[in-house]
Amino acid sequence: MIKLGSGLSESQVKIGQRVGVAWQRDICGACGMCLTEGGETRCFEQLNSGRKIDGTFAEYTVVPYRYLTKLIEGPEDQVLAPILCGGVTIYKGLKICGATPGQWVVVSGAGGGVGALGIQYSKAMGYRTIAIDAGKEKEKYCLDLGAEVFIDLKTTADIASVVRENTSGRGAAAVLVTAGSGKAYQDALGMLGPFGSLVCIGIPPPSQLVNFHPLLFIDMGIRIIGSAVGTRLDIQEAIEFVQRGLVHPTVQMTTLEQLSEVSEQIVQGKVGI
Amino acid sequence: MIKLGSGLSESQVKIGQRVGVAWQRDICGACGMCLTEGGETRCFEQLNSGRKIDGTFAEYTVVPYRYLTKLIEGPEDQVLAPILCGGVTIYKGLKICGATPGQWVVVSGAGGGVGALGIQYSKAMGYRTIAIDAGKEKEKYCLDLGAEVFIDLKTTADIASVVRENTSGRGAAAVLVTAGSGKAYQDALGMLGPFGSLVCIGIPPPSQLVNFHPLLFIDMGIRIIGSAVGTRLDIQEAIEFVQRGLVHPTVQMTTLEQLSEVSEQIVQGKVGI
Amino acid sequence: MIKLGSGLSESQVKIGQRVGVAWQRDICGACGMCLTEGGETRCFEQLNSGRKIDGTFAEYTVVPYRYLTKLIEGPEDQVLAPILCGGVTIYKGLKICGATPGQWVVVSGAGGGVGALGIQYSKAMGYRTIAIDAGKEKEKYCLDLGAEVFIDLKTTADIASVVRENTSGRGAAAVLVTAGSGKAYQDALGMLGPFGSLVCIGIPPPSQLVNFHPLLFIDMGIRIIGSAVGTRLDIQEAIEFVQRGLVHPTVQMTTLEQLSEVSEQIVQGKVGI
Amino acid sequence: MIKLGSGLSESQVKIGQRVGVAWQRDICGACGMCLTEGGETRCFEQLNSGRKIDGTFAEYTVVPYRYLTKLIEGPEDQVLAPILCGGVTIYKGLKICGATPGQWVVVSGAGGGVGALGIQYSKAMGYRTIAIDAGKEKEKYCLDLGAEVFIDLKTTADIASVVRENTSGRGAAAVLVTAGSGKAYQDALGMLGPFGSLVCIGIPPPSQLVNFHPLLFIDMGIRIIGSAVGTRLDIQEAIEFVQRGLVHPTVQMTTLEQLSEVSEQIVQGKVGI
């Protein structure tokens, strides 16, 4: 007599429906994180595509139905795929960053894959965006994507001061660090205005630690938080921005046969991620 | 290769473990509520014990393993059972009520089953408690359970004023209405102090509506919210108060054979719930 | 030796600076609201322009320096003035409404003065906006201002259903009622999706009450809150949208001599507010 | 005609009333912090007792009336005085720590002046308290004050593990570091459970920095925040706990003449603070 949970409910995906497979492939539903409201994306025993189990560089794969993400019809596969990991990650970071639309948000590492999506989501969500990255090429890229200010980390001695100058002296309402760099985090702490939030997204190498003095939190009321991908609803919301034409992932199509070659290029820095 | 979700994970209940079956028997995991963080207890397609499926007045029952609530050893079955529905409901109401421990909280309908647990949780959670109910017997009961103030709704013309007098003129930080009475809700709106919260818990008959004028929200910064049972973690937290000896459900033991008789007594008002 | 508070601090307005006089003219700084964080706009003893003291239909007026609102140079007086009351009110309502940019927000009474600013702020803040008002003229006006959907309350039998249809069945993340109409509030309750917020802004006549049944809050997780103008910082933030060209108040210039005539026209409904 | 702000309002202190002078002596009311809701205790130009202006080791002093803290009659001066700085600081830290009463809170530096008040407030506010300090004497002191668990930092190799053992493996819901020690903060990061909060209160020497790796925030959902004394309302709330007999500051009375001698003893570590 108990049907729910042992099969598909009316609200779940149907055979033939367009679906996506996200980074988060399944959760245990019973660990300390899963039991905590909003903790599902941090399940201690989660399965991730391409980590403990095979990933999605394949034509067929097996996925628990409840973790199939419903996808809308319309946008092409290649522009939806990046949203299922990088896109939803930065979207969720902005969703929880605490800034009010109209306030200044800094995206650090803005010329990378997640960062470039970050500029677009930030603008589409009503924030004023300061992009931080290196070089003239990245500058043009970031400004074209919607950043109002670009700060070149190679040529700027005191980035935090420039952020302050561009925010009427107040500092940023939030800084989202998408760069996997300890220094990017270190700089970020100095950019925050009253009650601002540093949102951890990029993962530096284990040896790159960030340091702080507690007085900064006491005096400025700031906070540090982290963002971990997003729920299935977050993904649906993030995709809607693509559907509405407000976010355009930059993608380069290739074939399964060329995967090794492309991977090599990424390692050599010839293709950005 | 995919094990999670298709079987028991390490973090889930084991055979032989002490478990409980709560009001919420299973969720669909995919509706608009389930997809929303914190929405699981409001699943639009949830199965509830004793509603769409058989309840727990039985010796054997089938429950999806992921909705078996892990129970600690120690307290007797009969003192844990009420926590799995009424106890966790009022505990969750207090958890989200927004009041800081030390501030005044009103429990309306305090002499009923949920209300009496409410007085005990409220005290154990550091709140100062005002209990509202009717009659000398309830007064003694509520004060014995830990209320600092009792207001008799039968003999008090202006309950809101008495609440204000007992809170240094400020009003309550939160009012939790456990009574299934429109009038109890109507009175509650006048008891709230600046930025106070009215928490809906008791369910009046469909015809008993509550009136408000929007200016009350504009001028006082108050809010109305609702509480719907609690998650499996909320239940574990609620049970810990029983284990620590801070909450003692008042229970009356009977047998399955006497169920019809007891139900009849409840209908006739001879046994409180 | 104590200088602060007994004179102008460095951070305060200077002689010659451009300033505005808002609806909130001064606060007591010591009542239950003023002592509560975020409570200043609800000071129980506040002075308001044109209520207990003379208003701003004058060439000279006396205002406590600390409640002079610093104004940026640039926009003309007549486009900043409406922001100091109506503009900041709807901006603050959106700031606290709890919706994430990209989600659907309903502005009820969207064709009025506050509502029309609401459509523009809502769009500029990244929300998708559903406007509710009456008539073809208002429809064109609201869609031109940036609403994606217009619902005509005169020709729509079940407004809540139309909101649901336009939000993929989910309902709105927030409804801001700017209309001073009990019916507008009554309808609003049915438009909210999971955990949505009804934000009270418009003030109906005292006799127009709104009614609810507590089950709506228990089942849907919704909340009712209110918004009361905004702080001096909120005003500065609201003005920045005007400076950026994202919000354009519709104003009609007249002279002090014609005030009585214009007031008469407003009473007769010939000029919108 | 404008009276408010230029004199005493009805809600403010009266001549003859019992008042206190807190650490925060006055604020500018117009800086970036003062303009931000909840920012008043972090005013960038605030006057503090004993810093930019003379302190309270005096028989007479001049204080702006609006920053005179209203005190209730009853408790003796010497038990109220510590609440106006250290007491309200730890009370406010607990008020914003995000833990639900019944959950585990760690007070690090629990045997010091602020820490000892922290144990008492924590218990009175319904939290379960783990105290961290050094030595048998402090252990007895902390347990007597209401801590359920004491961890001796001198004899415990892995403090974080002991915290985890005592919290059913979950970790603490909040850690309040009152010790002015970089190491205390460093240890604290490892004690937090899912979505736990590290609250910065104690101020280490400028050279003692704390290190973190962003992955901790991403994986665990934790946050770091800071607490800065408290508002006048926070002080009133903190004092109420003293009045109710739930918090007893340990004080040692002396005379103004002996101040130099006592200061010397504090420097030599003969008197705890």
What does this structure look like?
- The structure is a homotetramer of 273-residue chains.
- With 273 residues, chain A is α/β, with parallel strands linked by helices.
- In chain A, 30% of the residues lie in helices and 18% in strands.
- Chain A has 10 helices and 11 strands.
- In chain A, the strands form 3 sheets. In chain A, strands 7-6-5-8-9-11 form a 6-stranded parallel β-sheet, sandwiched between helices. In chain A, strands 1-4 form a two-stranded antiparallel sheet.
- In chain A, helix 3 crosses helix 9.
- The longest helix of chain A is centred in the middle third of the chain and has 12 residues.
- The radius of gyration of chain A is 20 Å and the shape is globular.
- Chains B and C meet through strand 9, strand 10, helix 7 and strand 11 of B and strand 9, strand 10, helix 8 and strand 11 of C.
- Strand 10 of chain B pairs antiparallel with strand 10 of chain C, so a sheet runs across the interface.
